[in-house]
Specification:
It is a single chain. The chain folds into 3 domains: about 80 residues, Rossmann fold (3-Layer(aba) Sandwich), CATH 3.40.50; about 60 residues, ATP-grasp fold, A domain (Dna Ligase, domain 1), CATH 3.30.1490; about 170 residues, D-amino Acid Aminotransferase, Chain A, domain 1 (2-Layer Sandwich). A hairpin with a 6-residue loop joins β13 and β14. With about 375 residues, it is of the alpha+beta class.
């Protein structure tokens, strides 16, 4: 661990000037890219993460390797920075509460509370008149059977917490495979979601400042393979009215959470009806926003830094037609192919072991208008 002194950069307007220090909970690739964007603007970053040799450590001014329940180390970390943010939504709620005692936490703990639990998330969205798939909670086999009767089939069973990239999920197609779901959820609190018929998946990414100003990026269209994001393209192949509806919904959610920072809302789109259904929230920068690094006037990472530091939000226009591709597992070993393509922008996350399905990097192509 390397401690850095907390700088006196907060003004009466609550702006943190360049030269200040941003604390980041989590040391993965998103934290790494936040730190890179922060450095460009003149900020230092201090990463807090339990895992040694985390990717974000390689580009940070300081880091702390300690557990998320280590109150002493958390307090020291928060006292050494001007503002704290997080790069993933499964930061324990107690961790957020401890940190918030010593430094501003942006986004706030409310966003974590809502997004960490799928039942809380969908209940929150429905309370604010945002359309989701129908849902019902369950923990036991009898409760699951009752949920299936209520929701119908096909349906998707998901653990309420910690699942991502398809982990902790099971599709129920018929009566015979209901019992198998309990092997996937392993007795954890879970939720059954009605199956949504859709034509495409999109992300609405918005940034909200403390002032309440909101800036939305162009809607991105996503393609998943084996539940993991494979490609993102901009502009999305959606009607103008659908894009406007998606941005309005994401803005409404950000306002309801009194959010500060970048928020991602994943949605399903039906082309025939123009129906927009929210799948889930990510209270952070997001994989489907990586295209913004080269493809937008302001990247999602710089925008997040601007928002949490109280700077004006940047412009969000796309610079052309953009395709972003994730490099999973051994894909990262084909780096020569990408370096030989003069149009490619290559990103390596600094991870050593290219396991199957692991996000190792990404590449982006930007075709500017002639």
């Amino acid at each position: 661990m390397t401690d850095v002194p907390k700088s006196a950069t907060c003004s009466a307007t609550d702006m943190i000037a360049p030269g200040g220090t941003i604390g980041i909970l989590g040391g993965g690739q998103l934290g790494r890219m936040i730190a890179l964007a922060a450095a460009k603007l003149g900020y230092k970053c201090h990463i807090y993460c339990p895992e040694e040799n985390s990717p974000a450590f390689q580009v940070a001014n300081a880091y702390t390797v300690a557990a998320y329940d280590d109150e002493t180390r958390l307090a020291l970390f928060a006292k050494a920075v001007d503002v704290v943010t997080y790069e993933f939504e499964n930061v324990p709620a107690q961790t957020a509460k401890i940190v918030a005692q010593y430094a501003p936490l942006r986004p706030g703990a409310r966003a974590l509370e809502v997004s960490q639990d799928r039942l809380s998330e969908k209940t929150f969205l429905n309370q604010h008149h945002i359309t989701t798939a129908p849902f019902a909670p369950f923990a036991t086999l009898d409760e699951l059977r009752s949920a299936v009767q209520k929701i119908g089939k096909p349906a998707v069973a998901k653990t309420r917490r910690m699942g991502y990239d398809g982990k902790g999920q099971a599709l129920i197609k018929n009566r015979e495979n209901i019992d198998d779901v309990m092997d996937v959820t392993k007795g954890a609190d879970a939720i059954l979601e009605g199956f949504v018929t859709f034509d495409r998946e999109i992300s609405a990414i918005v940034a909200r400042a403390k002032s309440g100003d909101v800036a939305a990026f162009p809607i991105a269209e996503n393609v998943h393979t084996n539940h993991i994001l494979a490609t993102t393209t901009v502009p999305a192949n959606v009607k103008t009215i659908v894009e406007a509806k998606a941005k309005i919904m994401a803005t409404k959610i950000a306002n309801a959470l009194d959010y500060i920072g970048v928020l991602t809302v994943e949605m399903f789109i039906s082309d025939a009806t123009g129906t927009v259904t929210v799948n889930e929230l990510a209270p952070r920068v997001h994989n489907s926003g990586h295209w913004t690094i080269e493809g937008a006037e302001t990247s999602q990472f710089e925008q997040h830094v601007r928002a949490i530091c109280g700077l004006p939000l940047g412009p969000t226009d796309a610079l052309g037609t953009i395709t972003m591709k994730n490099l999973l597992g051994s894909d990262i070993l084909d780096f020569e192919k990408y370096f030989n393509d003069p149009k490619v922008h290559y990103h390596h996350y600094g991870k050593k072991h290219p396991r199957k399905g692991r996000k190792m990097g990404h590449v982006t192509w930007v075709e500017t208008a002639k």
